[in-house]
Amino acid sequence: MRLVLHAGTHKTGTTSIQRVLADNRDWLRSRGLYYPDGGRIFRERTPHHQIAHGLKSADPVLHRASLDYIRQIRCNARDGETVIISSEPIYRHISGRADANNVSDEEYWARRRRYLEDVARALHEFDVEVLLFYRRVDDFAVSSYGESVRKGSWHGDFMDFIQRNSRRYEYDAQFSLFRSIFQRVVTRSYDDALSKGIIPVFFDTLGFPMPPIVADDWLRRTQHPRLLLWMARRGKVAKVKDLRDFISSDEASQIFSDKVGFWPSESVRNDFLQRYGAKPACDLTLPEVRLSDEEAQLIDSKFDRWIAERRRSVIMSPSWISSPTIEWSPLPSLRRLGAKWKRFKHRS
Q1: What average pLDDT does the structure give for the chain?
Q2: Which of 225, 230, 234 has its CA nearest to residue 260?
Q3: Are both 261 and 289 inside the same structural domain?
Q4: Considering the domain boundaries, does residue 308 fall inside one?
Q5: How confident is the model at residue 309 (pLDDT cuts 50, 70, 90)?
Q6: Distances (CA, A) of 180 to 64, 134, 172, 174, 177
Q7: What is the domain extent for residue 304?
Q8: The Cα angle at residue 143 between residues 137 and 149, in degrees rounded to 5
Q9: What pLDDT band is residue 248 in, cutting at 50, 70 and 90?
């Protein structure tokens, strides 16, 4: 039975792909493409990250849960179907509890191989085909930095980030490792797919038709570099939509109006590209973004003032105070609490 293991890479439209797969689960299955949900084990609706995490885990309970879930998929799959598992952490995980960024190169690649071998063993009943989308490595570095800052998992500057996460950018080595463990590895260029759209290219690669429900927000832009530097200092501050509203507000628009980037110079950027086997950049390298202490304090004050004004306007808005359509009831909350209690008792 064919199983497509969509392993990323990160920042190549994976979230939107997973959302489209989940939104069209029944429609796709009627055409022979089976995108399993979490079932009774993981309760995931869209990605299969719990499988990826569980196979990495040194906790035998989590590891066993992943194996049980894969067996559940095999039992539920029908003859002739193509199964798809989608989880980009498969591209970065190493075996055991160790942090991939805190081990030597030798230990990293040994643990990385061990992890992928565990994945291959867990899927041994399937005819596995690995699918990887690669993004131009300098754009991947900028986009992954932005995501880490937004999530609050990184608080340093850009150059320190790419040095600490350097193994993510070793595309050739990662591909060779996949290829040495799995018989078939298919790669696609994220940048080439932009003209057609990542969703159509994804389904064309699978050999299945485009589903009817497709998200129209698959292409997401990285936040303004100065905003990301400020967030790296301050920590996770708000939802992405709130930040977009803030930087476009009269309060802050001038601070984020200039065109700047993260690379210190064109030569540094091209050295980075050359190190990872990519061609020199053809587009303009923007001036490096700066953020002084005074600028950070100014953004702090403007953001706090903007948030306070936004909350005040919501409180004073009559739309929800007087609306007869909005009624609060404790019953749904009590029902959810009761359901959680029943699950807890069942597990114990």
Answers
A1: 87
A2: 225
A3: yes
A4: yes
A5: confident
A6: 25, 18, 12, 10, 5
A7: 225-317
A8: 135
A9: confident
